[in-house]
Amino acid sequence: MNASVDKRLDRKLMSNLSFIRASFGNSQDLVIKEMNNDNGLQAALVYMDGLTDSTVIHHVILDYFMSEEQTASRKSGNRLLYLKNAVLAVGETVTISEWDPLFYQLLSGWAVLLLADSPDAICVAAEGWKDRNVSEPTSQVVVRGPMEAFTENIATNRALIRRKIKDPQLWTEGMEIGKITKTSVSIMYLRNVADEKIVEEVRKRLGEINIDGILESGYIEELIQDTALTPFATIYNTERPDTIAAGLLEGRVAILVDGTPFVLLVPALFIQFFQSAEDYYQRADISTLLRILRFIAFMITLLAPSLYIAITTFHQEMLPTSLLINLAAQREGVPFPAFIEALAMELTFEILREAGVRMPKTVGQAVSIVGTLVIGQAAVDAGIVSAAMVIIVSITAISSFVIPATSMSISVRMIRFVLMGLAASFGLFGILLGYILLVLHLNSLQSFGIPYMQSFSPFIWSNQKDTLFRLPWTKMRTRAVATAEKNLVRQRPRNKQKI
Amino acid sequence: MQQGQPSISARQLAILVIYFIMGDMQLFLPSLTAEFAEEAAWLSGLIGLPIGLGMAWFIYSLSKHFPDMTLIEINNQAFGKLAGSLVSLLFLAMMFNTSITQIREIGDFVTTQILIETPIIMICLLMIFPLAIAIHGGIRAVGRAGETIFPLFVLVFVLLLLLLLPSLKPTELLPIWGAGVSGIMKGSLFFVGFPFCELFAFLMIFPNVVQSKHRARDYMLGVLIGGLAIWVMVLLCLLVLGTYITQHSFYSPYIMSKKINIGNFVQRMEAIFAISFIITAYFRSLIYGYAFVLGVSRLFKLRDFRILTVPFAFMALGYSYMVTPGIVFLNTLAVPWVLWILTYSPGLLLLGWGLAKLRGKLPMKETAD
């Protein structure tokens, strides 16, 4: 402990080593390998067990001893330089003379070589830990398209994007966020397409973060979003490299966070949450129909239970007589008003869905059997809910899975309950009111200065080619006006050749 | 107005104009015009439409004579500081009154036709809530909300028209002349007065519309579409219900939408009409309410109109409750009301324009557009 409290390294090797030991509290995974030889050349290799690649470590030691003859003859300063430049040809090496960056490198998986009589240390890149392989995406599945997803390793993720966009204009900026975790975060953007104002805004908001730890991109998302007072996500997240690459080509900015396969994309627009990567790989007519289908599904998720409540409670005359009699007969034995019935069933379903996500895989079957019975046949047979209500809840549930982005389907699930309450109190008038309030709210949102509802309001005609519709690629000659500021042209008109 | 002010696009302006013209008129205009013109109510509409377009153009050109000025500043410029402020107060009173009347009309409509046991104050409260939120968001929020809701509105309105097609009875239009020329002219007075003359509220909004070469065209297109829509409403009411029922029911288009019956399956679609009516009446109220709040802040030189939204909401709630004892009384006011409007617009507007011209205070000659 007699090592100086100074920020810089000491000249004495022993005091340096004891300072490291003391700083780490003799942690088990801290390995200090002292190396001496007859010539009196002393050195120590310090690294973290498990974070480093053992072949690199052995290489360093081996190289060191192989070079001992030559190094012994040199003075200490030169010795270090000689070691760094000529001997340790392992890859990246850095000379560090202060404790803070040294600890950071050490904990990032670098090996540190300390020499006696030297105030500098050589850090050797030796990271090597067990990583998950690049595997198939689990949350955003496509039938046709790339089958690779991001991993927890930020370097791998950057490489996955680079492999898709081989252009030096794809710029990457790195930073460390989190006072304790020191998580590395990268922002990526196409320099010649992205709006510099948005990039600057991203930089500014990331720079303003002052938190002890970042464990997932969700932290960053909440810390840099425009407003927290909304059920809607104003930042898009995805685990698909192709979606990020497409976003970068549209002029968006990607934010990669170490330790999570979910990469953020800003600015995010409302309609983006209804678009799947596959839309661009399938034929245009199919994609357009699928997008419209998703929008219908969105409306069903949002409105089906509340419309059912409103019509059966207040506006029975809207139903054809035969259907009305049918419904009334079904509801005859049901002891609850439609609202309570719907609320109970929707809650049951939400519980089942949450259980399905959280439960261990081994008990999955048991829960799904109980779930099917509870939500289905048994509840109807017991006369607690009507069969029509089960149909409504089921179609609502299935529709909510159609929305490609989880963040959007969660928002819709929440808003649905508000609309159900309004429908139960004021019928269709209540639903209309809720709709107007929803529209007002959506229009008040912004994502990094871009209106959330852009393309619809303010309506931009040229953006309609890729909003609710997806025109053939031959027609999509320009980028969306929303995000890209410059370099709008995506493809030149092709030479019309007579065939 | 200074640079950097929040602004709306010409398209949003056109959409707001359509909402504004249709407003509560798609509910009341058929019975008002049919009361005087009888079978020829559709002819009053046909005569009223070009006059209304001219009126709308007058109001627009007024804003071009006084560029970047709201109605309050126009009044100050034309009448002088003191008299101008008094005239502005008159206009503001009318804006407030009409804005809240829309809310009250929605309340009356909902409590008599849809939710019969609900107290009217609750419905008014529920309508004032989104009203205040939208006004607080400023003109940009109003414009964007209008644009976002527009597809739904068009869908509902067109669906209503299409579903009514099988119920049309062309013989209901006979005899063509109805109540004669004087009746037709009286009927067209309503057709011009309520929807088109009231467009003066947009004098508070024009300075916030982005300058573009489509501005005048989009505005007039909005006026034309809105005018045609209410004319179609009058025509359909006559064709479906006949003159007698159209005259003698307050909510004739609503009764008309009850007549929808396609294959004994699609029937009783009056909710569709209710949605369309509530949307347009809400926006009419919103535009008037925004014009009022902005006008007050301009008149008293307040830095930000947003501080007025909460007081406005409370006043609106109280006023909506006491403005009329009921829809029957409101309907008896139709004739004095339309004359009241005509004294303001074109009356006071023309006076102001003339005075400004005489005093040489017109800031700018009308430029070719």
UniProtKB/TrEMBL annotation, chain A:
For this record, the Gene Ontology CC terms, alphabetical, are: membrane
Q: Which domain of life is it from?
A: Bacteria
- UniProt keyword terms in alphabetical order: Membrane, Transmembrane, Transmembrane helix
InterPro entries under this entry?
Spore_Ger, UPF0353/GerABKA_families
Span-the-membrane segments of this chain are 253-274, 295-314, 386-405, 417-438
Biological process (GO) annotations held by this record are: spore germination
Q: What is the similarity comment for this entry?
A: Belongs to the GerABKA family.
Question: What is the protein named?
Answer: Spore germination protein KA
TrEMBL record, chain B:
Output the InterPro entries linked to this UniProt entry: Spore_GerAB (IPR004761)
Which GO annotations describe the biological process of this protein?
Answer: spore germination
Q: Do the record's keywords include Membrane? A: yes
Record GO cellular component, one term = membrane
State the annotated membrane topology for this chain: Multi-pass membrane protein
The protein's UniProt keywords, in alphabetical order, are: Germination, Membrane, Transmembrane, Transmembrane helix, Transport
| The protein's name in its UniProt record | Spore germination protein KB
| Pfam families xrefs | Spore_permease
The Swiss-Prot or TrEMBL record describes its family as follows: Belongs to the amino acid-polyamine-organocation (APC) superfamily. Spore germination protein (SGP) (TC 2.A.3.9) family.
Q: Does the keyword Calcium apply?
A: no
The cross-references to PANTHER family, in alphabetical order and at most eight, read:
SPORE GERMINATION PROTEIN A2 (PTHR34975)
**TM ranges:** 12-29, 41-62, 82-100, 120-142, 149-168, 188-207, 219-245, 271-293, 305-322, 334-356
Q: Where in the cell is it found?
A: Membrane
